Amino acid sequence: MNTREWTGIILAGGLSSRMGTNKAMLELNGSVVLQHVTKAMRPAVSRIIVAAGPNVTTYGAMGYDCVQDHYPGKGPLAGLHAALEASDTDWNLVCACDMPLLQTSFFDGIKKLAESHDSYSAIVPRVDGHVHPLAGAYHIRVLPDLEQRLIQDHLRVMRWLEEIGCCYVEAEELERAGVHQVAMQMSNMNTPEEYERIRNQDSGLDSDL
């Protein structure tokens, strides 16, 4: 197990039922959302794994290193499990594919915080009281417990975070770690209206990559 390098995990296997189409393949500024997330994450990691779920053919054709869920139909925890199974590093950066405003500063900042909070198994942002479990860092040691939860159909992400020993980092701590425009970066999109809001933001998508 590599203790110095990091793997990036992008969760992109959801059904996008509220959006009505695959969120990862929506266009933003001339690229699809998945490409924006990848571009932001790549400088911070040695490898990127896409938890593709049923979309493995689509993403594989784009050249992505994809994994499929071992426990299909069990939500984002199943995608995280499959990607952690394929990872060969202790620490792993994780984000959902519907967060196209994430920038490299976020991933670099989360890495710094994980390295200074190594006794925890996960580092997750909590911004304005809202926890973002699908944008953070997870240690490989969570894998056995994660698999048991999937087997037992205990799929509540927040309950799992409490059990594994999660460090919640507030916006101020993220800013001290070098993360810029924290609230903006945490924006995600689940509906056509949220997608339009992100499209219309003066976001400077590539300003910090």
Mean pLDDT: 92
- Give the SSE order as H and E letters: EEEHEHEHEHEEEHHEHHH
Please estimate the helix content. 25-40%
Q: How many discrete domains?
A: 1
For the record, what is the CATH homologous superfamily label?
A: Spore Coat Polysaccharide Biosynthesis Protein SpsA, Chain A
How many angstroms does the end-to-end distance come to? 28 Å
Strand content: 15-25%
Instruction: Identify the CATH architecture.
Output: Alpha-Beta Complex
The CATH topology is given as: Spore Coat Polysaccharide Biosynthesis Protein SpsA, Chain A
Query: How many strands appear in the DSSP assignment?
Result: 10
Q: Quaternary status of these chains?
A: single chain
SS class: alpha/beta
> What is the CATH C level class, in words?
Alpha Beta
Structural key phrases:
9 helices, two-stranded antiparallel sheet, 209 residues, 10 strands, Spore Coat Polysaccharide Biosynthesis Protein SpsA, Chain A, eight-stranded mixed β-sheet, alpha/beta, disordered C terminus
Task: Describe the secondary-structure layout.
Blueprint: E1 7-11, E2 27-28, E3 31-32, H1 33-41, E4 47-51, H2 56-61, E5 66-67, H3 76-86, E6 91-96, H4 104-116, E7 122-127, E8 130-131, E9 135-139, H5 143-151, H6 157-164, E10 166-170, H7 171-176, H8 182-185, H9 192-200
Parallel strand pairs: 1-4, 1-6, 4-5, 7-10
Antiparallel strand pairs: 2-3, 6-9, 7-8, 7-9
Helix pairs in contact: 3-5
Protein architecture, described:
The chain contains nine helices and ten strands. It has a single domain, classed as Spore Coat Polysaccharide Biosynthesis Protein SpsA, Chain A (Alpha-Beta Complex). Helix content is about 35%, strand content about 20%. The protein has about 210 residues and is α/β, with parallel strands linked by helices. The longest helix has 13 residues. The C terminus is likely disordered. It is globular and about 40 Å long. α3 packs across α5.
